């Protein structure tokens, strides 16, 4: 039997398994490696942190198939030359084909104290701790959220509904919130925050973080809890790999999504250097293409020199439970419609992700 090991049960890893199973060759065994016994809806971690979604609502079962075995553990290193995965408990797994989909973690941009004194929503474990911290903040306390990308915006808006007593400060480096989107969308979101009493601090520059507050342009702002959503990087195991990476430490791949030096090692999701910013959609699209290449490799068929451009359907974001925003192609969506659409997409994923 040949072993296909998939490191990480995220969006890309799940899509690869789902697409392989219907006609998996008899001589292939799939081993999924993860720390948890279920796939987690990372795009919804902000709701768990804010206390508006229950832990079990963010879980999707791994595929139940005798051809898929699940290995629980924490990966500490990948030995490419020996085709081995090493774990925290010092055990080892060998592979014939490998898919690295270990995801990302916070990037602190060398800000002193940021790692030690801020909370995260980058993993299920970290998000649970963040929820507990926020839940324990005293009435009328102050929550500071550093980073006003999609995660920061959704967390701030959800927290406004969950804890209306809190003072919420959202720190944004740009001149206006979500500046990478069309101005109409950015203005709508910024105005929503103003209307709902969330303090948006544009043109911010966080220079230091302490246990009881942060420094914006070296001016201290007291905070009862600080949540960091100001950038991500591949996990340390991937950053330690001796392979070619881009400026963001993501692994550079061939058009077929494997290492230029090793056609048996694929990278999917947040760890892969791709033309678009990391997202669940992108990881799933990449997973589809990796399946195509794996099947051709197993059948000893020639590989395509190029693969079709991965088509992204757009972006949908929430502003609490009743409002939202979206960008579908060139079309900007604002208000209730994008929020309803997002809820529908989430429902479809949870209950029909294997189709």
UniProtKB/TrEMBL annotation:
Belongs to the NADH dehydrogenase family. PANTHER family: 64 KDA MITOCHONDRIAL NADH DEHYDROGENASE (EUROFUNG), APOPTOSIS-INDUCING FACTOR 1. GO terms for biological process: aerobic electron transport chain. InterPro entries: FAD/NAD-bd_sf, FAD/NAD-binding_dom, NADH-Q_oxidoreductase. One of its GO terms (molecular function) is NAD(P)H dehydrogenase (quinone) activity. Its cofactor is FAD. This is NADH dehydrogenase. Keywords: FAD, Flavoprotein, Oxidoreductase. Pfam families: Pyr_redox_2. Residues 3-283 form the FAD/NAD(P)-binding domain.
């Amino acid at each position: 039997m040949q072993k296909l090991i998939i490191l990480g049960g995220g969006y890309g890893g799940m899509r690869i398994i789902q697409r392989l199973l219907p006609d998996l060759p008899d001589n292939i065994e799939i081993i999924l490696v993860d720390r948890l016994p279920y796939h987690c809806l990372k795009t919804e971690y902000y709701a768990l942190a804010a206390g508006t979604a229950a832990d079990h609502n963010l879980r999707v079962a791994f595929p139940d198939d005798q051809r898929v075995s699940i290995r629980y553990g924490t990966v500490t290193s990948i030995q490419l030359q020996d085709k081995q995965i090493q774990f925290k408990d010092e055990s080892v797994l060998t592979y014939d084909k490998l898919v690295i989909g270990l995801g990302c973690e916070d990037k602190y941009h060398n800000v002193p104290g940021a790692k030690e004194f801020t909370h995260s929503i980058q993993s299920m474990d970290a998000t649970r701790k963040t929820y507990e911290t926020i839940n324990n903040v005293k009435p009328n306390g102050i929550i500071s959220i550093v980073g006003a990308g999609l995660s920061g915006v959704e967390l701030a808006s959800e927290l406004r509904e969950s804890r209306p007593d809190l003072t919420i400060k959202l720190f944004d480096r740009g001149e206006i919130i979500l500046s990478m989107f069309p101005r109409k969308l950015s203005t709508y979101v910024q105005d929503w925050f103003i209307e709902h009493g969330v303090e948006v601090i544009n043109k911010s520059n966080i220079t230091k973080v302490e246990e009881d507050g942060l420094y914006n342009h070296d001016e201290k702002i007291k905070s009862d809890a600080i949540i960091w959503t100001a950038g991500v990087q591949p996990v340390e195991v991937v950053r330690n790999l001796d392979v070619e990476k881009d400026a963001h430490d993501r692994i550079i791949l061939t058009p077929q999504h494997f290492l230029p030096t090793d056609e048996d090692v694929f990278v999917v999701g947040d760890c892969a250097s791709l033309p678009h910013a990391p997202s669940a959609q992108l990881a799933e699209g990449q997973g589809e293409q990796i399946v195509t290449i794996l099947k051709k490799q197993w059948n000893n068929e020639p590989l395509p020199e190029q693969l079709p451009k991965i088509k992204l359907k757009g972006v949908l974001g929430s502003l609490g439970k009743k409002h939202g925003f979206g960008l579908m192609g060139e079309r900007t969506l604002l208000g209730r419609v994008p929020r309803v659409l997002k809820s529908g997409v989430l429902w479809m994923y949870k209950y029909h992700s294997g189709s």
